[in-house]
Design a protein that fits this description.
Length: 176
């Protein structure tokens, strides 16, 4: 095989790396790992880039969003969680990423699908899922919206519980 040089270009909520790939000479040697942020950067005013600036080759993975709570949370099912939010709008605090990030948008979509106003849950912006999970474990927020792999260690240890997974197909190990 041929050598492969990996360059991580961080910053700007993904704008730096995505811009590097979009502006690279189309020589067949530069590949860019497109992430979810590519679909939001333009609309958030971070970058002019859109998916149209790339030619996709393949999809590497897809992680469905999940609503995750502490094991001792009062809600045992997603229906109980939704009923609680409807009864006390604006009281539940949830996090997972910055405002407008992937998990915030997933949370908003979940609420709309559950016939809940988008502002029925207070979104607490953080720098990502890891700090959000720390906040959840510490009891500072009520729930996290993120992918299951990001919380797998705490779920498998019995510290956190998955209330629902937002996917087209059921994941056998988790509720839908």
């Amino acid at each position: 095989g041929a050598p492969c040089v990996v360059q991580n270009k961080t910053g700007g909520s993904g704008a730096v790396g995505h811009s590097f790939g979009a502006n690279a000479r189309p020589d067949g040697y530069t590949l860019t790992m497109g992430t979810f942020e590519l679909s939001t950067m333009h609309w958030m005013g971070i970058s002019d880039l859109t998916y149209a600036d790339y030619r996709p080759l393949m999809q590497v993975n897809a992680d469905a969003a999940a609503i995750i709570v502490r094991q001792d949370a009062p809600w045992k099912t997603v229906d109980e969680f939704i009923a609680h939010i409807k009864a006390q709008p604006g009281k539940v605090q949830m996090s997972g990423t910055a405002t407008g990030g992937a998990w915030d948008l997933a949370r908003a979509g979940f609420q709309l699908a559950a016939d809940l106003p988008v502002d029925a849950v207070l979104w607490v912006p953080t720098l990502g899922s890891a700090p959000s999970l720390v906040e959840l474990m510490g009891g500072h927020i009520d729930a996290v919206c993120c992918s299951i792999p990001e919380a797998a260690a705490q779920v498998e240890a019995g510290e956190l519980r998955v209330l629902t997974v937002m996917s087209q197909e059921r994941l056998a190990a988790y509720p839908r």
